[in-house]
Design a protein that fits this description.
The protein has eight helices and no strands. The chain is an all-alpha fold. The two termini are 26 Å apart.
Length: 196
């Protein structure tokens, strides 16, 4: 359980670090104006809303393992499209993909977390691991900012996105191992009993 927790947390840490360079990347590397960047953020807002709507419709039919694994993988793929983009339209597609699938990844992780952590332990686990995740976020974000001063910004963003993609693939592999199927099935069965 903790391996899935930490892998998902590291995907989010890498996402936060790459996000810290997003505005500079959009303006310096892609050459977007302030209005174009504002429009790009608006497209991300549309992606969040449409992802959340579709998520609400299909969430009960989707296994938690797919929500976490595929959601995280496509968030990373969205970042990858954005990092390799050379135009506004490519960056917009990347932004839309990553925020669209973010709701699936977050819903899957929240469900997984609530299924496996008892109510009595939830506050302590959240506090301890939330603190660890926050510390890692600060360290990695500072490292990315420092690296951006020493090398081209696009290389730093690409390195961060590729690391995020590798962690997402590891999370998918961890989720879809045959030994984990009964682990998820037990919790999905419990959920269906609760719903009935």
């Amino acid at each position: 359980m903790m391996s899935i927790y930490f892998l998902f947390a590291f995907v989010m840490v890498m996402a936060s670090a790459v996000d810290s360079l997003e505005a500079a990347f959009s303006k310096q590397v892609l050459g977007l104006s302030n209005s174009e960047y504002g429009f790009l953020v608006s497209i991300a807002g549309i992606g969040i809303i449409s992802g959340a709507i579709i998520n609400t419709i299909i969430v009960k039919r989707m296994p938690v393992s797919i929500l976490i694994g595929i959601g995280s993988l496509f968030v990373s793929i969205g970042y990858l499209i954005y990092a390799f983009s050379a135009s506004f339209s490519a960056a917009a597609i990347g932004f839309y993909v990553l925020v669209f699938f973010l709701s699936f990844a977050n819903t899957g992780f929240s469900t997984f977390y609530q299924d496996h952590i008892t109510a009595g332990m939830m506050g302590r686990v959240t506090s301890i691991y939330g603190l660890i995740q926050s510390v890692f976020t600060v360290i990695v974000t500072m490292a990315f900012g420092f690296a951006a001063q020493l090398m081209p910004l696009q290389h730093v963003v690409l390195a961060g996105v590729l690391m995020m993609l590798m962690i997402s693939i590891a999370l998918c592999v961890c989720n879809f191992q045959p030994t984990r199927s009964s682990f998820y099935r037990r919790n999905e069965t419990a959920n269906s009993i609760i719903e009935e």
